[in-house]
Amino acid sequence: MLTKHPIYYIIYNNAQAFLRTGNEIGGRMKKTTQRLIIIGSLIAAVTLFFLFLCDILIPFIRMEIARDFNGAKELLESKGVLGFLSVVFVEALQMVVIFIPAEFIQVSSGLSYPFYIALLLCDLGVCLGATIIYVLVTVFRFSNDAYEKNEKVINRLAKNVKKDRGTQLLLYLLFIMPFIPFGAICYYGSYRKMKYPRYLFTVATGVIPSIVTSNLMGTAARYFIGNKLPLPLLILILLLLAGLLFTILFLFLNRIYFRQNEGTPESVFATGFFAVLHRLMRRRQRLTVDDSLLSGLRGPFVALANHASFFDMYYMSRLLKDRNPSFVVNKHYLSHPLIRKAAGKSGMIRKKLFYPDISVPLKIVRMLKKGYPVVIFPEARLSVDGRSYPIIDRSAGFYRRLKTDLVLIKIRGSYFAKPKWRKRLFKTDVHIAAERVITAEEIAAMTDAELDALIDAALRYDESENPIGTFRQKDMAKGLENVLYRCADCGALYGTEGVGNTLVCSACGKTRRLNERYLFEDAPFSIGAYYGRIRELERDELSSLHLETDVKTVIFRDTGRYATREKGRCTLTPDGFSYCSARESFTVGFDKLPALPFSCGKEFETYHNGDLYYFYPTENRRQAARWALLVDLIRETRDEKGQE
Question: Is there a single domain that holds both residue 344 and residue 357?
């Protein structure tokens, strides 16, 4: 065995004494002192960046615009070490402070220096900043408020990481994720007590993809400023660089880090989808979440929620964000091959609307056994008038066989934020709360009828009864005629029109205005009440019903990826729904047609022999809402007679 040199012991002993002293100092370090260090670092970083900007970058850009390339070259050469140090120290200090974006100095250095120099300077700055953070954390026990704000995101990704090698892999992942600052990642690595050589090597190599991308953006901008690069090509390069970074991130996540989670709600597809969705929605919606009743739940459960908006799945993901739920989703929305594949890898459960599919219960059971909660919207379609649809598919017996807890969740405000008849999303208040937890033991003690009644009562809602938030938009009634298609006063069909904040009937001239609470100023005061009047008008004429319309039909085959298009004719009577074309004809009785889903002002739809038929009326597509309502009324009438 080789004997260590005496100098080694001198250095080692002094280092140990330094660490002990540092720990004593760190133990006494107060929050005020820590904040002073952050403020000092911030001032230093801003000052250095300002000097770099005024003394180097701005003159450099001016010379490039003037095509004074010799002057630009001489400027960089004249600054020499000062310019290099500015980049290094700004990069280092922004890491300590965390909330200063690193991209500023990285793009700027790419704009000012040749690519290879800019890359080296930025990487050196990152290594210096990482070293400062390592010393602050391991020696002085320093904590950072900005890091703590990113800690939850990092811990969620790191929940299965226990070993040093696992931490290293996680750091590589974090460095190529665009929304987590380098400094926060280095604080995390330091808190995990990685050995300094491995820590520094990981930092130095892990930041390269991001630095390369930013430097290349700066380089491309430099060529654009010098009229060597046209604007369309510059935009294309920037998009390609962003796409390259995203591809690297995706491959790393999917092939290495989250490979074991494929096919579950913890996969890279599900995690990425909801992360992007949250980024898009968090500033567009004022969401209040109440998950207090979920704190005592340990195992997987089934969550049932009302369904008034296309964004309800997003609201549910925020309520259950730490539990990684699986969603039962309309199969047609996931029919595209790429989307279908991504949905399968995300643990989503595809289901045909109002059509029997024995594979769905099996998939729900399988997901629960893996430990993931499953979210179901029992109404199976978006609310048309802000009130809950009756639950057609009664599933109390199925929930009993699952032998798991049932969580009943109420979403309020989502209907007025984005109803199915309006294209635009309004920024408003949305509340989501777990209203009731029914344990497996309680379910076992109930009859099917009792459990179904309890679910109905818990999920029943009327958005107009106690509206939350106010609405000051000027187009609140736009598109409303696609639901309130009939005048509640004169009964005229398709004479209503939503104009600004008013609903106007062209037949009788009646005008109703919506106020800031999304209520009409005179009776019927709510959208739901107005729709209720239309229901009664249609119910009175139900016995003589014979409705026909020519349609353009799009048929999505159960097998195969391509749709068939044809022309045909639909007929609706109290005896059933019929379709006839040059190729085929069929009739569906109401024992097999529980509902007719529709899209406002577009189409109505149903399944036949496993294939999905979309019917687009050739005249007045507003009638799609009427077809759907009439099917509901016929079914309700049949159910009432059956009970008698």
Answer: yes
